[in-house]
Amino acid sequence: MILLYLILIMIAGGLAAWLSGRAGDNLPRWITLLTLGIAAVIVAALWTGKGSGADGILTSGWMAEFDVSWLPQLGIRFHLALDGLSLIMISLTVFLGILSVLASWTGITYKTGFFHFNILWILAGIIGVFLAMDLFLFYFFWELMLIPMYFLIGIWGHENSRYAAIKFFIFTQASGLLMLLSIIGLYLIQGRATGIYSFEYVHFLNNHIDPGLGRLLALGFLAAFLVKLPAVPFHTWLPDAHTEAPTAGSVILAGLLLKTGAYGILRFVLPIFPEISTELAPWAMILGVTGILYGAKLAFAQTDMKRMVAYTSVSHMGFVLLGIFAFNQIALQGVVMQMVTHGISTGALFILAGLMQERIHTRDMDLMGGLWDKVPRMAAVGMVFAMASLGLPGLGNFVAEFLVLLGAFQANQVITILATLGLIAATVYALRFVQQVFHGKARREWQVKDFNIRELAITESMIIVIVWLGLYPQPLINTAKPALEHIQDQLTIPDIYPRTGNPDDNAVKMKLAPGTNSAIEQNITGGGEENRSSRIQKFRRTSYRGRK
Predict the structure, then answer these.
(1) pLDDT at res. 546
(2) How far apart are CA 256 and CA 248, in angstroms?
(3) What are the φ and ψ backbone dihedral angles of 173, each rounded to 5 degrees?
(4) Where are the alpha helices (DSSP H) in 229-304?
(5) Neighbours of 447 (CB within 10 A)
(6) Which residue of 249, 258, 394, 477 lies most exposed, with the fewest beta carbons within 10 A?
(7) What does the alpha-carbon distance between residue 285 and residue 409 come to, in Å, rounded to a whole number?
(8) Which of these, 227, 241, 232, lies nearest to 307 by C-alpha position?
């Protein structure tokens, strides 16, 4: 029930914040902060009781689960489940949610009740996406988070907010409908083949689908996830949405909504469509490296601070796409690290841009300069997160990108070498940002106040997390590892990597997904004790409890 409570608290808190708006502007803020504080306590409780394996890390089964029949006539269940990957993502959701509210404390001065209602309902939808194990329920939460974000951009955004909100909604809604068609297609195919009509995730594992039809279904899922990621050329909604959104909207959009696309590929596309995923892997990796280089180039060309940070998101999420389709544990661990560290570092830069705009009423970096002496605390924070963005060792982003590149190099050396050029480009645009905003000659005599205690608390908490992940990332990696191994287990099947008597031949077959974990390598090359069928049965019994 704890997972259901987590979502219901968000929904109820949102309604309470909306209704309390009539009593003044402050009450909705405090209700929202209290709601997120309760959610943080629940998440902390989930961390403390997350399993009984080595070091307290989950080794099998769900950490928490809630499963009841919802629409039995259609085979729809309200099934929520938590593993290490989900736990990391909902922790990031609650953390960034609290900081978004604090960062908007004085910036939102009208319709504050409705504003905080939308914040909490977006977060409820995002948490639902990270927990849903019924594909219809997953789509329900996927759509739930879109409408509040549309209002957030359209009502509290900047000059062209209506255009940006409509563009965001059209892109995400149209691609989401393609995913819905694929979900219905899977539902019908499985029902006709087995006589069991169900949207349960586990029922779609290890199904034999006609390759031609399977490609269409997989592309339906990928359409929704690549748009949300976003991958080039499906990214054009993102810069407008980020630029026009209020600070909280930009933080949630960059830190959380983009991650739902990556999560969807990891959780659904790879396990349900393993053969098709391996077919599409080279193209997906090309899209990833294209996004890395293209996003970095456009980030360097921007003068609008928020638009610059938006294009850095396109570049950094290219590493996520590259790592996912490298298909090995090192790359997948880097993907999870990148999802977390990008959410924190980019969220911090958007908070910085929003606070700067509140003070000087512009985001144009050409009008800034020489601010270090006037706002040394703000400048120091800006430099820390600019260094995180370029991947400075000692900060979490470096660990994430290093793991992704190390894993991707084993899959495709040429693409990985091209991707490393993105690190050089990131150095260029990050240093340009610091130089243009905080150093050099002042272009105008701005009267700017430095960070206050609230703003320092926000940014310092993010610095602590990004440094901690840079110096000691192992707890996060260990928490995600069992879920990532289950995902990879669905990919390392004999149909994709045929066994031969010669281990060298197997290495050739593994070109797209060389195993970096010894146990996984044994399963691929025939050294494992369990064959594919027994592993699937164990997977269903212990982790996902398939129902007949």
Answers:
(1) 37
(2) 11
(3) -70, -45
(4) 237-244, 247-252, 258-264, 270-272, 274-301
(5) 8
(6) 394
(7) 11
(8) 241
What letter would DSSP give residue 80?
Answer: E
Which residue in the block uniquely carries the two structure tokens 């129902």? 547
Q: At which residue do the structure tokens 């150093």 appear? A: 439
Q: Which of 39, 64, 37 is nearest to 50 (CA)?
A: 64
In angstroms, rounded to a whole number, what is the distance separating the alpha carbons of residues 231 and 238? 10
Task: Kindly state the average pLDDT of the residues 28-56.
Answer: 81
What is the per-residue burial (b if ≥16 Cβ within 10 Å, else e) of 465-500? bbeebbeebeebbbbbbbbbebbbbbbbbeebbeee
Residues 438-449: tens digit of each pLDDT: 987 877 877 888
- 145, 182 in Cβ contact below 8 A? no
Q: Which of 316, 322, 338, 223 is nearest to 281 (CA)?
A: 322
- How far is 63 from 87, CA to CA, in rounded Å? 9
pLDDT at 511: 36
Confidence at residue 56, expressed as pLDDT on a 0 to 100 scale: 34
Partners of 77 in the beta sheet? 69
Inter-CA distances, 388 with 52, 447, 472, 548, Å: 34, 28, 15, 48
Q: Percent of the chain at pLDDT above 70? A: 87
Q: What tens digit of pLDDT does each residue of 220-279 get?
A: 999 999 999 999 999 999 999 999 999 999 999 999 999 999 999 999 999 999 989 999
The pLDDT of residue 542? 40
- 187-217 residues labelled b (16+ CB within 10 A) or e (exposed): bebbeeeeeeebbbbbbbbbeebeeeebbeb
Phi then psi for residue 506, to 5 deg, are -60, -35
**Residue type present at position 267:** R
Residues 474-479, mean pLDDT to the nearest whole number: 94
Nearest to 87 by CA among 141, 120, 42: 42
Helix (H, G, I), strand (E, B) or coil at 371: coil
In a 10 Å sphere around its CB, with 0-12 CB exposed, 13-18 middle and 19+ buried, how is residue 183 labelled? Answer: buried
pLDDT, residue 502, reads: 40
Q: Rounded CA gap, 199 and 9, in Å?
A: 26
**537: Cβ contacts below 8 Å, ≥ 6 apart:** none
CA–CA distances in Å: residue 59 to residues 50, 56, 62, 429, 489: 10, 9, 9, 42, 14
Separation CA 333–CA 476 (nearest Å): 9
